[in-house]
């Protein structure tokens, strides 16, 4: 069941988590802008934007609407892998959603400690740049993404996904009703949630 067991790099869908983390920690504001000329240089490595000619000067709303990679390379560098992982976990990534289906996977949200333990290697800043656009070690399930975006859409509440709303008798009477189960509230201020929701309308 790929919806709950398939684990994939989330790609640009992950940029909303990066934006949420940076906004909430005060590292950027909606007006913070970076220049995109089509690439981002870190040491002797060059990370490309999908728009090879660049987007020019880009602030948050346009960066989300046009999915500017260079903007999020810059923001990822500001956040760091461990802080980003903290917010990703709050959005429900890195753990099963709890839906009543067998063999649900939890995905992977990397940290410095995880890499050192798993691969016996220290974390590299270039790896943070990659995960800031949903690549690298990141792995999520489609259902985790649905749940995370649902939380943004509803104003900040992460709900446990359900398959069954109610059980009915043959005559249509309700035998059992399953009430919604709240898992948590996103650690994001309402005004920051609205900034992200507005950008998603632009998308």
Q: Label the structural class.
A: alpha+beta
Tell me how many strands there are: 8
Write the element-wise H/E pattern from the N-terminal end onward: HHEEEEHHHHHHEEEEH
Q: Proportion of β residues?
A: 5-15%
Strand order of the largest sheet: 1-4
Number of helices: 9
The end-to-end distance, rounded to whole angstroms, is 28 Å
Give your account of this protein's structure.
The protein has helices spanning 2-5, 15-24, 60-65, 69-79, 81-90, 112-119, 125-131, 142-153, 190-202; strands at 33-36, 39-42, 45-48, 56-59, 157-159, 166-168, 174-177, 182-185. Helix 2 packs across helix 5. The longest helix has 13 residues, at 190-202. A hairpin with a 2-residue loop joins strand 2 and strand 3. With 203 residues, the protein is α+β, with helices and mostly antiparallel strands. It is 40% helix and 15% strand.
């Amino acid at each position: 069941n790929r919806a709950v067991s398939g684990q994939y790099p989330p790609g640009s869908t992950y940029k909303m988590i990066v934006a949420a983390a940076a906004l909430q920690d005060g590292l950027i504001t909606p007006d913070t802008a970076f220049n995109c000329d089509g690439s981002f240089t870190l040491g002797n490595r060059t990370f490309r934007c999908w728009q090879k000619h660049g987007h020019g000067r880009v602030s948050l709303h346009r960066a989300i609407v046009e999915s500017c990679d260079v903007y999020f390379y810059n923001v990822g560098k500001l956040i760091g892998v461990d802080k980003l992982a903290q917010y990703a976990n709050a959005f429900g990534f890195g753990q099963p959603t709890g839906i009543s289906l067998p063999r649900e996977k939890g995905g992977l949200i990397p940290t410095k400690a995880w890499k050192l333990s798993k691969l016996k290697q220290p974390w590299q800043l270039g790896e943070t740049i990659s995960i800031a656009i949903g690549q690298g070690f990141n792995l999520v399930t489609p259902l985790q993404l649905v749940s995370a975006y649902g939380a943004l859409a509803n104003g900040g509440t992460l709900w446990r996904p359900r398959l069954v709303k109610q059980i009915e008798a043959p005559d249509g009477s309700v035998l059992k009703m399953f009430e919604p189960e709240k898992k948590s509230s996103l650690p994001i201020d309402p005004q920051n949630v609205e900034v992200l929701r507005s950008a998603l309308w632009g998308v």
